[in-house]
Design goal:
359 residues; alpha/beta; five-stranded mixed beta sheet; 9 strands; 45% helix; globular
Length: 359
């Protein structure tokens, strides 16, 4: 069960409590699910009971107990505990992590993508400035991954090198804009959106960095922050976030090759001491949705760094050492590493950045 699925399950419990008359509230659009904070326990926690208590006219712990009774028997939830003023803490069943890995391996680089069109036509517009064009291009990729139909136009003519070197896909204003996706028909179609992209401009020319480092340098900072150019984006060391992300991906691919040489293959199963990585992987669909909603590719870039930093400590224990024979634990860790590599490669692809198998 991913955080997104757990959030839906929590909202379903709220709806049931409202339908059965135990709560008199408006069901919120989402329930925020995060790793437990200080004093919490289990795999995930939510503060939705505190959020609803005022409208419900009941103490937060009472609201939490009402919801706990409806959540304790849900599939893949092993236990639900109320802590503090009314936090709901969830412990997932042991096979939940294996199911998450299976889902990622089934979807591959498209894990977190919407299945089907979302019904929204989004028209992105940006000035003829290199960072704005790159941000618009990356945002268009993410929006399309969420099922939207997207076009990008530029107020002015983008430099040819922005397309040939940085791989942007934008049409000048007044020409026919490029789009991708197909709008779903029927009553669920959503209103069209017109969005202007105007981040803080690049202080210098990013073209000398090349496509991958150049795009990362422009996308990793938040829109209001000025990019560091040229920075250390080409340096292959741990201080460079792009290097860590690509290195973690390349290491997962190398482990798969080495495991095949040893005669064993990935097989999802429980993995100990991997809670941070499992939480980051499970959070990937929510991050893609938030990136699209808040128009911020930097959210995805920072999330990939989180995934990479949680992946690297796992990798030394994936292969058997010395005369050790491959075990179920090795196969499970290999499957988790492969899943992490798929998320890293898929995320980099949405940013328009290559994920090489060798680095």
């Amino acid at each position: 069960m991913t955080p997104v699925e757990l959030s839906r399950t929590v909202l379903h419990a709220v709806r049931r409590a409202v339908d059965e008359g135990e709560l008199s509230v408006t069901v919120p659009e989402r329930a925020v699910v995060t790793p437990p904070g200080p004093g919490g326990c289990g795999d995930y926690a939510t503060s939705i009971a505190l959020q609803l208590a005022g409208a419900a006219g009941q103490p937060p712990r009472r609201v939490a107990e009402i919801l706990r009774a409806r959540l304790a028997g849900e599939a893949f939830i092993g236990d639900v505990v109320v802590t503090g003023p009314g936090f709901l803490n969830f412990s997932l069943e042991r096979n939940a992590s294996a199911l998450l890995v299976e889902e990622i391996l089934r979807r591959g680089r498209r894990y977190g993508h919407a299945e089907g069109a979302g019904g929204t036509v989004v028209r992105l517009r940006c000035p003829a400035e290199v960072r704005a064009v790159v941000v618009a291009d990356a945002l268009a990729r993410v929006l399309r991954s969420q099922g939207d139909v997207v076009s990008v136009t530029c107020d002015g003519r983008p430099a040819l090198e922005w397309e040939t070197v940085l791989g942007v896909d934008a049409a000048p204003s007044g020409s026919r804009s490029r789009s991708a996706g197909s709008r779903s028909a029927g009553p669920r179609a959503l209103p069209d959106l017109d969005i202007t992209i105007h981040p803080a401009p690049a202080p210098t020319d990013p073209l000398p960095l090349g496509r991958d480092a150049g795009r990362w340098a422009l996308l990793y900072p938040a829109a209001h922050d000025r990019p560091r150019l040229p920075g250390d984006h080409l340096v292959q060391r741990e201080a460079n976030p792009l290097f860590r992300v690509r290195y973690a991906h390349a290491r997962t691919r190398a482990l798969l090759r080495n495991a095949a040489d040893l005669g064993f293959h990935p097989e999802p199963g429980p993995v100990s001491d991997a809670e941070a990585l499992l939480a980051a992987l499970g959070d990937h669909p929510r991050i893609l949705t938030a990136t699209a909603t808040h128009r911020g590719p930097d959210r995805l870039a920072r999330h990939l760094v989180t995934v990479a930093d949680a992946t690297l400590p796992l990798l030394p224990a994936v292969l058997p050492l010395g005369d050790e024979k491959p075990s179920a634990a090795h196969r499970a860790r290999l499957a988790l590493a492969e899943a992490a590599g798929a998320v890293l490669a898929g995320g980099l692809s949405l940013l328009g950045i290559d994920a090489p198998d060798h680095l």
